[in-house]
Amino acid sequence: MERLQKVIAHAGIASRRKAEELIKEGRVTVNGKVVTELGIKVTPKDEIEVNGVKIEGEEPVYFLFYKPRGVITSVNDEKGRKTVMEFFPQVKQRIYPVGRLDYDTSGLLIMTNDGEFANLLMHPKFETDKTYVAKVKGIPNREDLKKLQKGVRLEDGMTAPARVKFLSSDRKKNTAIVEITIHEGRNRQVRRMFDSIGFPVLKLKRERFSFLTLHGLNPGDSRVLTPHEIKQLRTIANKGSLI
Q: Which GO terms describe its molecular function (predicted)?
């Protein structure tokens, strides 16, 4: 289920703010009844009319995208920076990113217009695994990495246990490459976790989202998710993944 104003916006009738105005003005009906409350949620089976004209729901689309560094994970940006939307000029549907990746973080991002699917993947209780590879300043030892495995205290609380793997180090440059898998989605969480143990992140890439990988893609590339992959994601999210 999705909020009525969001459905109207996705159908291309109006912006979400304008859709809210239309609802307040009594110009929207759901299954033949006038609706003026903004909090109402609807399903794909509900019949929605705006100014007496039935709106047609968009066909759901799902993309796996390799976000480059230096790109905003947003539909638009007030500062005029490049956004992920600029990589999908051929897509007619009003897609948006599932979750976020920082401006300086590259890697796997899912793009869709299916709000229920997006909420399913991002809700904390569903525990979808996300794997990152971080280049950090300094060379953490086993005890340092155990702190991340057990969970560290950040300003917004303790993190859940993580899976951590030391990949390599460069003693001349005093840097290391570490893989970390988390299922939470706090703002800049991986960077803050490494900061908390004294090893700031120099470069960060999300390499996996659940079972999905970036195999065969270069930065800026995308591909359509298969029906089987979409079904798998729904199943895994509903069951919850284990760490």
A: RNA binding; rRNA pseudouridine synthase activity
Evaluate whether 53 touches 29 at the Cβ level (below 8 Å).
no
What is the CATH number assigned to the segment(s) 62-124+211-239?
3.30.70.580
Examine domains 2-54 and 129-209 and report if their fold is the same.
no
Query: Where do the domains of the chain lie?
Result: 2-54, 62-124+211-239, 129-209
3-class DSSP assignment, residue 158: strand
Contacts of 4 (CB under 8 A, 6+ apart): 19, 23, 28, 30, 35, 38, 40, 41, 42, 48
pTM value is 0.79
Instruction: Report the topology of domain 2-54.
Output: 3.10.290
DSSP string, 6-25: HHHHHTTSS-HHHHHHHHHT
Q: In this predicted model, what pLDDT tens digit does every residue of 169-207 receive, in sequence order?
A: 999 999 999 999 999 888 899 999 999 999 999 999 999
Active-site hit among 102, 114, 170, 221:
102
Is 102 annotated in the active site? Answer: yes
Residue 144 corresponds to which tokens in the numbers above?
A: 């340092």
| CATH 3.30.70.1560 for domain 129-209 | yes
Phi, psi of 75 (to 5 degrees): -70, -35
DSSP-derived letter for residue 208 is: E
Q: H or E stretch including 27?
A: none
Q: Determine contact, residues 164/199, Cβ cutoff 8 Å.
A: no
